[in-house]
Write a structure and sequence with these properties.
The complex is a heterodimer of chains A (383) and B (332). By secondary structure, chain A is an alpha/beta fold. Chain A is 34% helix and 17% strand. Chain A is built from 14 helices and 13 strands. In chain A, the strands form four sheets. Chain A has a five-stranded parallel β-sheet, sandwiched between helices. A four-stranded parallel β-sheet of chain A has the order 4-3-5-6, sandwiched between helices. In chain A, strands 10-13 form a two-stranded antiparallel sheet. In chain A, helix 2 packs parallel to helix 14. Chain B is an alpha+beta fold and 332 residues long. In chain B, a hairpin with a 4-residue loop joins strand 1 and strand 2. Chain B has nine helices and 14 strands. In chain B, helix 5 crosses helix 8. Classes of the chains: A alpha/beta (383), B alpha+beta (332). Chains A and B meet through helix 1, helix 2, helix 4, strand 4 and helix 14 of A and helix 1, helix 8 and strand 14 of B.
Chain lengths: 383, 332
């Protein structure tokens, strides 16, 4: 009989102290051979979280720096979109459903948490499929799923829509805010060439989020070593994974290579999950522009429902009440620079004073995956 | 302070502290309240006095129910001050339409738990409110206990103390989260809900030099350690590896992105005892069925006053902060 797989099998060994220390030593040895310092951007907030939670920066030599990227699905949602969610939640007979800490992010009218305390029915779910149950239990209500996330969560929204159509469910609607990783990586490289980068921290290499590649494959990063001369290592999220991925990046520089490599081989393939990709292509298409908080409009970086599914599209159905105007971010907040990797959280004057996890001003402080929240929570003041 | 009260204000963490200090402490300020202990010490240090209200969903969960919780909660607060729980009051607010049978079940578990503590209910109150005014049933208990050992206080911890936890942490928070509507998961997790007086009595009977005790309810072990660091102006240095956490709780935390140290407990307490007695205290705790994993988890130093430092087994360290915000599962 097959032995039962326990959850701990998934992380045991990947937090092993001797292994982590061995990688730290290996990286230190290799880093001595580097001709100039390197800046690695971890695109994903999950990696930022791992790096801060396990104190990995403390194990790295001085000539290897991390630039924290924009890959936190909650952090990048602009105020305009949060206002949409807020307004939708206040409509008659609406139950607004979203994922996790999205409910904490303030828009210009407040957060969804505030909407809830003002009488709106706002719920968070762990799986988008929980919407089906909510819809069945509340046949007279309209369930609006405020969908967020990168390639990791997009297939679930598509699968939910597929079920809604197949089962003929009449009371579930979608407000789509799904975004894509390669488009923003490209934007970060390009915008850096245009901006005067006062921090002098150009991105030399990327750590690619492995869960995105579980869906989309590692192929989505092929262009970066090929066209932009930036190595990419697709990495898992445990401390051993990240240390190994750093080591692989450093080795590329030492050996004068520039390629796409996968550290997270236990799950990631070149092609990814083709069924999930097909599901996304069936229901979604690229938006011309999508505004990212702090980064502005990025071409083709967001998804929306295809026109044939507009009967399920809350943006279409409620277009009369959803404003289209742009909203300025807080003047002192530097989330934009942080999301671009041009500043570190402690460089913000609001960090830890006016802006805290309990009263966030910028989006990077809101989600536990945001760079500011990770710095605030884990301190990392100890060297 | 925010203009409206959010759910985060009741989380036992940062927002909760802000609400209490800026609204209640400000209005009710006095020397006894300012000590900010689990139970107030009154009447020349002879009596401990505490109150707690209970709202939990679901009402019945693996390892307990709201009735057991209502007695354990208040009695544990008294026990944490080295007091024997004696007299309780019991107030209930019931939603119209609530089933009598369920109420009887709740009261039966209250009675059983009172027996374990050797306490009695001497006064009570019942209110029934229209449907929708409360969620099924809310219970308040208030208790008086007789102080068996004077001087236990969260304000007196020093470098001579060692920090111990009585059992594996986070079971209640994890069990309740899994049982909550909307989270479709099944597990063998049981709440740690338990009366702590028998454990406290065993420690006192053995003359263990206890400096402070606190049950790690909302906000979990990290809230207790942070409160102590501030109240006693010390640095608590925790060895992460030494914190006992069951595989089930670890698994839930992995899946949902929680930290076990921030999860609520109802039968878990943290002790600061003189280092001479630390090993002996752990041995005594281990004689209890639920405390097989009792362990020393931290030292007290002056490295970073008012801060809790978490040390990993690979030589890095970070601050362990007071939990903040509503407990929400991660997105991806």
């Amino acid at each position: 009989m097959m032995e039962q797989l326990e959850l701990k099998n998934l992380y045991d060994g990947f937090r092993d102290a001797p292994t982590i220390k061995a990688y730290a030593k290996l990286i230190e040895e290799d880093a001595k051979k580097l001709q100039s310092p390197i800046n690695i951007m971890e695109v994903c907030g999950g990696h930022t979280h791992t790096i801060m939670k396990y104190g990995l920066l403390q194990l790295l030599p001085k000539n290897i720096k991390f630039i924290h990227g924009p890959g936190c699905p909650v952090c990048i949602i602009p105020k305009e979109r949060i206002d949409h969610a807020y307004i939708l939640s206040m409509q008659e007979d609406v139950i607004l459903v979203t994922l996790g800490d999205m409910i904490k992010v303030p828009g210009s009218k407040g957060s969804l948490q505030d909407a809830r305390s003002r009488g709106a029915d706002v719920r968070f779910v762990y799986s988008p499929f929980d919407c089906l149950k909510i819809a069945r239990q509340n046949p007279t209500k309209k369930i609006i799923f405020f969908a967020i996330g990168f390639e990791t969560t997009t297939p679930m929204s598509a699968a939910l829509l597929e079920s809604v159509i197949k089962e003929g469910i009449y009371n579930i609607f979608f407000h789509i805010n799904h975004v894509r990783v390669p488009e923003v990586m490209r934007e970060l490289i390009k915008s850096r060439d245009v901006h005067v980068d006062s921090y002098n921290n150009k991105i030399d290499a990327f750590l690619g989020p492995s869960h995105v590649s579980v869906i989309s494959g590692s192929k989505i990063y092929e262009e970066f070593p090929r066209d932009y001369n930036r190595p990419v290592v697709v990495s898992g999220f445990e401390p051993v994974d990240v240390m190994q991925a750093i080591s692989m990046s450093v080795k590329q520089f030492v050996e004068g290579r520039c390629s796409l490599e996968t550290q997270y081989k236990r799950v990631v393939t070149y092609d990814g999950n083709l069924k999930a990709q097909e599901l996304i292509d069936t229901y979604f298409e690229q938006r011309e522009l999508f505004k990212w908080r702090g980064l502005g409009n990025i071409p083709k970086s967001g998804l929306k429902l295809k026109p044939e599914f507009e009967a399920y599209d809350a943006e279409v159905i409620y277009k009369d009440v959803l404003p289209l105007g742009e909203i300025e971010d807080h003047k002192l907040c530097i989330c934009g620079d942080i999301l671009r990797g041009m500043a570190n959280p402690p460089e913000c004057t609001l960090f830890g004073t006016a802006c805290k996890p309990s009263s966030p001003i910028g989006s990077c402080m809101v989600s536990s995956e945001g760079a500011c929240a990770a710095y605030y929570k884990y301190g990392n003041l100890i060297k | 302070m925010n203009k409206t009260i959010s759910l985060a204000c009741g989380n036992g963490g940062e927002e909760n502290n802000e609400l209490i200090s800026q609204v209640f402490y400000k209005a009710f300020k006095n020397n006894i309240l300012d000590k900010s202990e689990d139970a107030a010490i009154i009447h020349n240090g002879e009596l401990a006095f505490s109150t707690d209200s209970f709202t939990v969903s679901p009402l019945f969960f693996a390892g307990g129910d709201i009735g057991k919780l209502a007695v354990c909660g208040t009695c544990n607060d008294l026990a944490m001050m080295g007091a024997k729980p004696k007299y309780l009051t019991c107030s209930v607010i019931i939603e119209e339409g609530f089933e009598t049978r369920e109420l009887e079940k709740i009261v039966r578990s209250m009675k059983k738990e009172l027996g374990i503590n050797g306490a009695i209910v001497v006064s009570g109150d019942t209110k029934v409110v229209p449907k929708g005014s409360v969620d099924k049933i809310f219970i308040n208990t208030t208790g008086i206990g007789e102080v068996l050992k004077k001087g236990i206080s969260s304000n007196n911890i020093t470098k001579d103390d060692i920090i111990i936890v009585n059992r594996d942490i986070g079971c209640h928070g994890a069990a309740i989260f899994v049982a909550r509507e909307g989270i479709e998961m099944s597990s063998s997790l049981r709440s740690d809900c338990e009366s702590l007086f028998p454990q406290v009595k065993a420690l006192l009977d053995a003359n263990i030099k206890i400096t402070a005790m606190r049950d790690a309810t909302r906000g979990g072990v990290s809230a207790v350690l942070n409160e102590w660091a501030k109240q006693s102006n010390i640095c608590v240095e925790v060895e992460e590896e030494s914190i006992p956490i069951s595989d089930e709780v670890k698994g839930i935390c992995e899946m949902l992105g929680f930290e076990a140290t921030a999860l609520a407990n109802e039968g878990t307490f943290v002790l600061a005892v003189n280092h001479d007695d630390a090993e002996r205290a752990v041995e005594i705790l281990k004689t209890f069925e639920s405390c097989k994993s009792a362990a020393i988890i931290a030292n007290v130093t002056d490295a970073y006053p008012k801060k809790v430092v978490l040390k990993s087994s690979w030589g890095t360290s970070r601050f362990l902060d007071t939990p903040s915000g509503e407990l929400l599962p991660r997105i991806c």
